[in-house]
Design a protein that fits this description.
There is one protein chain. Helices cover 0% and strands 47% of the residues. The termini are far apart. It is globular and about 40 Å long. With 117 residues, it is mainly β. The chain has a 6-stranded mixed β-sheet with strand order 2-10-9-4-5-6, with no helix packed on it.
Length: 117
């Protein structure tokens, strides 16, 4: 049974940073591309970032390019999203998803990130 558990969300000030983690279990993590997505209140679902199974081919939405960095540790079955220079518009529920960006794979329950002064 696939399980994805996000953590690391919370309150950040504009310009601040947060690091999200996603602990994966129930599948061979190192065989799959992984993604981060988010959904803000009243807004659509947005694929934020993705990464290949071996850590290659990172993808970033234009809205986060240059500020967010995706990475993974296959030995720890963990996916990360380092978020720098946060903006209020980054406020959203962030999800970890099995598969590349746009692939409707299973995802976790999400971790809330709120950017506010």
């Amino acid at each position: 049974q696939v399980q994805l558990v996000e953590s690391g969300g919370g309150l950040a000030q504009p310009g601040g940073s947060r690091r999200l983690s996603c602990a994966a279990s129930g599948f061979t993590f190192s065989n799959y591309a992984m993604s981060w997505a988010r959904q803000a209140p009243g807004k659509g679902f947005e694929w934020v970032s993705g990464i290949g199974s071996d850590g290659s081919d990172p993808y970033y939405a234009d809205s986060v390019k240059g500020r967010f960095t995706i990475s993974r540790d296959n030995a720890k079955n963990t996916l990360y999203l380092q978020m720098n220079r946060l903006k209020p518009e980054d406020t959203a529920l962030y999800y970890c998803s099995k598969g590349g960006p746009g692939f409707p794979g299973p995802r976790g329950r999400g971790t809330q990130v709120t950017v506010s002064s």
